[in-house]
Design goal:
- The chain is of the alpha/beta class.
- It is 36% helix and 14% strand.
- The radius of gyration is 20 Å and the shape is globular.
- 45% of the residues are buried.
């Protein structure tokens, strides 16, 4: 059959998402979803929506969601960009700030979508090796036309502090430094947003999929100086003027305003994460110091793929990558205490 794809599309290697089984009985620890439901205020807010408004297009800028996020960060609405999941926001950032530029620095081990977007938007990505212990050395990120880092990083779960991020900003004045903070609410480091007043090339991207437990609604946003937000809007208006539906905007606003619930559920996840790490280390496994709602465990000298398959046979999903440097590792999302007890029991029986 004739291939109608363009040559460019034929050369792309798409991102492989985690399995999403639909039947019951699985312990799902493979996509870093929140094991707890979203704030009760989210459902209450959605139930109060006048369904007659569904015939109208939603606010293109995020409406009440944008207003709530700006207020929570003590920023102006002009500092906030709202999109259909952080993946869309990141993709728009690649188009707006990195397309046809080189070098754009990024770690060799990080979010698997970065190289995909690099290929799709003709970005000259420069993959900088993490240290042997998977830590990031900011002195290696110099004189780029852009920098893309996840902090905390995925899949390693490690994070760098504000001093390191600021040094990267100073070393790359000619390009946007994008900090992907999908997991920042589970970390014990401050957000890069604190640096925003001093740097006009800083863009911070976040998601409601993890800490806010709204992965099913696909909500993301970016924080930056107004000229960067204008750049994202330029890319958005050239693609989709209304990326977020009114239900998502309403849910995001309600979730943002319930800061107490956010903190409560994050602390539950962190406590479970720390207990899980302690048990795994008692079994003899090395676990990188986690800063997200997941952990990255070293299975060597045993076979990580064999453990992955054993867990799969027992209806427990985790992530495994057959790639250099990390083929001996598994990434395990943090579920409920009961989920993690099932996981640990299975690992102990392997």
């Amino acid at each position: 059959m004739k291939n109608y794809l363009t040559k460019h599309m034929q050369q792309l290697h798409p991102y492989t998402a985690g399995l999403q089984p639909q039947e019951d009985g699985w312990i799902k620890l493979n996509t870093n979803e929140n094991p707890y439901p979203p704030s009760p205020k989210v459902l209450d807010a959605i139930n109060k929506i006048d369904t007659a408004t569904l015939r109208l297009y939603p606010p293109g800028d995020g409406g009440k969601m944008r207003e709530a996020i700006a207020k929570s960060l003590n920023l102006n609405e002009e500092n906030i960009f709202c999109g259909n999941g952080s993946d869309e926001v990141l993709a728009l950032a690649f188009q707006a700030f990195f397309s046809e530029k080189k070098p754009v620095h990024t770690p060799d081990i990080s979010y698997g979508f970065y190289p995909v977007w690099g290929g799709m938007y003709n970005v000259g990505l420069n993959f900088i090796e993490l240290n042997d212990d998977f830590t990031l050395d900011p002195t290696h990120y110099k004189n780029g036309q852009g920098v893309i880092i996840a902090n905390p990083n995925a899949p390693t779960g490690l994070a760098i502090g504000l001093d390191a991020i600021e040094s990267i900003l100073k070393q790359n004045p000619d390009g946007v430094v994008l900090v992907d903070e999908a997991y920042i609410d589970f970390a014990d480091i401050p957000s890069a947003v604190h640096l925003l007043p001093r740097y006009d090339n800083l863009l911070v991207v976040r998601t409601f999929s993890k800490s806010h437990a709204l992965a099913g609604m696909r909500i993301g946003y970016a924080i930056g100086q107004p000229h960067l937000i204008d750049g994202l809007n330029l890319a958005k208006e050239s693609f989709n003027s209304y990326p977020l539906d009114i239900l998502a905007q309403t849910a995001a606003a309600a979730a943002t305003e319930d800061a107490d619930y956010l903190n409560h559920t994050c602390q539950k996840v962190i406590a479970t994460r720390n207990r899980t790490v302690a048990v795994l280390e008692a079994m003899g496994y090395e676990v990188l110091p986690p800063q997200g709602n997941f952990l990255f465990m070293n299975v060597v000298p045993r076979d990580a793929k064999e453990l992955y398959n054993y867990l799969l046979e027992n209806k427990i999903l985790v992530r495994y990558w057959d790639k250099p440097r990390i083929s001996g590792m598994l990434r395990v999302s943090i579920g409920t205490d009961r989920d993690m007890e099932g996981f640990l029991k299975c690992v102990s029986q392997w």
